[in-house]
Structure formats: C-alpha cells, structure tokens
Specification:
The chain has 436 residues and is an alpha+beta fold. It is built from 15 helices and 14 strands.
Length: 436
C-alpha cells in the first residue's frame, strides 16, 4: 500500500523551499526518480538520507523520522451494490466477501436500510407520507455509512472495502424529483457529492429483465413488485445513478454464476486487483442531438476540466475537476501502457481540493487544460461517455470502457458513428491539449 502521508509531507516541505524534484535530488546525491517515489508513497528514504533532507529543508530530523515511521492510514474503498428487485444482491454480497477476503481486504457490509426499516414496521404505508419515509431512510443511510467509515479508520487492516447494500441515490427511484430535491434541502445535502462520494456503483439487473424464470418475491419480505414493476424500477435506479464516474450495469447475459463473476471482475478492476487494466474504445461521432440526450432519464451532464501533469516518457498523469453547478470532486489519474493489446494500467485516486490545487503546480506547460461537457448515457446495460469540446461544433467523441476486448458495443441509433479512433493519436485528449 502506498503511504501518501509521508509523501505529501515531503512534497509540501519541498515546495515551501522552492525546490524542484531534480534540485532536491541533486542536493541529496540521489536520482529525481527516488524523490518521486518518496512523494508518491512507493518508497521511503533511509535514516542517512533523512539527515541530509533535514538539513536541506531546514527541519528537524525527528519530525521526518516520525512522519516516515507513522503507520499509514488504511486504504478505504466504499462501493454500492444496487439493482432492481430479485437481481442477486444477496448472493453477490457472499461472492464479494469470499473473493476479496482472500485478497487481503477487510470487507464491511452496510445492510440495506429500506429492508431494516420496513421489517421493523417503518414503511411508506405506515409513515405520514412516502416523502417522510424516504427522507428518514436517506438520513439513516448516511448515518450508517458515516459510522462504518469512522470505524474502518480504527481498524488494523491495510485494505478495507465497505460495501453498501444500496446507496443514497436509490431513494430517487422511489420519489418524485420534487420530493428528492426537498429531501436534499431538508438534510442540507449536495446532490453531486451525494452521488459521487462512492468510489464505485455496481447495478445488478433484475431477473425480471432477461432471466424471468428466476424472478421471485419469496426471498425478501419487503419486496412486492410484479415483473413489469421490477423492470420499471430497474430503469429508474439506472437513471438515478447515471452520472457517477464509475457506474457499471451488470445484466443477465449467460447464467447466474457468470453474472456474479462479472460483478467480481468489475469490482476488481476498480480496486486494481490484481492490476487495474482498462480497455477503452473511442469513436468519433457526429455532433449529437442535445435535446434528445437531455430528454433521456438515463443520461446526465457534467462539466470537466482536465489538466495534464509532467510525467515520465510513455506514461500519462493528469488531474481532473468533475461536477456540476459549482459542486466538484477532484481526481488524479496515472496511465501507462501494458504489453500488447488495448489494455493499459490505470491508477486513480480521489483528491482533496487542497491536493488538487497543489498538483496543478506540476502542470505540463506544453499541454493546455482540456475543458469539456460530458454526457453520461446508460444504454442497453452499457455506459457511454459522450464528450463535447468547445472547439468543435460538428463532431464529438464517445468512449466506452470494457473488461472484455471482444465485447459487442450496442450504440443508440441516434448516435451516428463516423469511425473508431481508439488507436488514432490525433484524438487522444493529450493531443487535443497540445498547444498549437
């Protein structure tokens, strides 16, 4: 596990002194790659090097020793498992427990709040209104997650996976838009942060859509939906979560075991277990019909500013501000090519606003920031990212991430594909960012 605590401390001290990584390396008699590894948490300096560091940075060696030897904070990842009625969530939890415990994770489960409340006698039909029930559910859901995260930080495990049996945005599927906005106002919640606070969201499609013979109400006393109602609810849930940066829909293709294996594969890709491979395909399309996109319940618009940082040859490093209506989250992404094929290794981490602003100081001067409007579209169990750039009014880029290179892509008929540009360097974001 990378120890970002010491690395961030060293980074701040170096910046305060006005040194580049190369200058600091020269003062210490090491390579700039060594300094980079310390700051990225991949390695730590020896005691002899710490003495030199203390002198160069004008600090006490005891402070450096204490920071270096502090136990690193656990890596905590919080995900949501959601889906329509009778989708396999309960079995999925068991698969997740078995798969990731074996890989060294402490796996924690936040139970489904709606089932807890209804089983205890608190239900939409016993409360004053559905709004009262859903608002109480949302408040309790967030409190439970807060307690699980707080407790997780006290644990000795290095890798912790918090699995939420449904998440905060599930409430939207059971409320009107006006009710949901009122609940956010009552609880002083920001919609974008509420949705994007989770590291990943995995939607299991109801058995009523593609596996009808297995649809049953017998394994959940809180479930009352007919198959048609289940399919409708499934669509509403997908629409509620569309817009999340890592949202995956897992359908009923093949048998139930293959569905569970796809779930584990998608979570593994998010966690980087064993390696965070990404298969990305990219297509040039005609400028889309925005009225059509914005009319779809399963389409969501976000604004993105992407800034490229200085990086070793062959690698790509960038920071991203992503959000809407003045509410933003921040990420750092490092990409490097794998051997052969379309796969490449991708590592992403969430940043605080302070970390984001600090990393902007490492911006590559040869590449301008890329501003784009992104439409996130869930279509036939696939998640498309449609990027509109301010310098194009006749074309756009659509991307899709896959775990299987042979997976078929089902484009909406309204998106007119001109050509695939996955391997065309002219359409890479870094090329579009190049200063003319």
């Amino acid at each position: 596990m990378n120890d970002y605590s010491f690395g961030n401390y060293l980074y701040e001290k170096r910046k305060l002194c006005g040194y580049s990584q190369t200058q600091l390396a020269q003062f210490l008699g090491v390579t700039n790659k060594a300094v980079s590894k310390w700051e990225n948490g991949r390695a730590k300096p020896t005691v002899d090097t710490l003495r030199k560091l203390a002198a160069v940075l004008g600090t006490d060696i005891e402070d450096l020793l204490r920071k270096r030897d502090e136990k690193p904070q656990a890596s905590i990842t919080k995900i949501v498992i959601t889906g329509g009625p009778c989708a396999g969530k309960t079995t999925g939890m068991s698969w997740i427990q078995n798969a990731f415990t074996k890989r060294g994770y402490q796996v924690l489960f936040v139970p489904e709040t709606a089932t807890e409340l209804i089983s205890g006698g608190v239900a939409p039909w016993t409360c004053g209104s559905n709004y009262d029930f859903q608002t109480a559910l949302l408040e309790l859901q967030l409190k439970k997650e807060e307690i699980f995260e707080k407790t997780a930080r006290t644990m000795a495990a290095e890798k912790i996976l918090i699995v939420c049996d449904r998440g905060a945005m599930d409430n939207l599927a059971y409320m009107t838009e006006a009710e949901f906005r009122a609940a956010l106002h009552t609880l002083s919640l920001d919609r974008v942060k509420l949705r994007d606070e989770y590291d990943g969201v995995f939607h299991l499609v109801t058995a009523a859509d593609g596996a009808e013979a297995f649809y049953t109400l017998s394994n959940n006393q809180a479930r009352t939906e007919t198959p048609e109602q289940a399919r409708t609810m499934d669509r509403k849930l997908i629409a509620a979560w569309t817009g999340h940066p890592h949202f995956r829909v897992i359908g009923n293709d093949g048998d139930f075991e293959s569905k569970m294996r796809r779930l584990i594969a998608e979570i593994s890709a998010l966690l980087g277990e064993p390696e965070p491979f990404e298969i990305e395909r990219k297509f040039l399309i005609e400028f889309p019909d925005l009225k059509w996109l914005e009319s779809l319940p399963n389409c969501h618009k976000v604004d993105i500013i992407q800034t490229y940082l200085k990086a070793p040859a062959g690698a790509e490093r960038r920071v991203r501000q992503r959000g809407e209506n003045g509410s933003y989250l921040y990420y750092e992404t490092i990409k490097k090519p794998a051997v052969g094929g379309l796969k490449r290794v991708e590592i992403e981490r969430r940043l605080t606003q302070k970390e984001y602003l600090m990393l902007l100081m490492e911006a590559d001067p040869d590449l301008r920031p890329i501003r784009k409007t992104r439409y996130l579209l869930t279509w036939e169990k696939q998640y498309f990212e449609i990027d509109l750039y301010p310098f194009w009014n006749d074309r756009a880029i659509v991307e899709i991430e896959l775990n299987d290179e042979k997976a078929a892509i089902r484009f909406p008929k309204k998106l007119r594909v001109l050509k695939e540009v996955t391997e065309d360097p002219a359409y890479k974001n870094a090329a579009l960012a190049a200063r003319k």
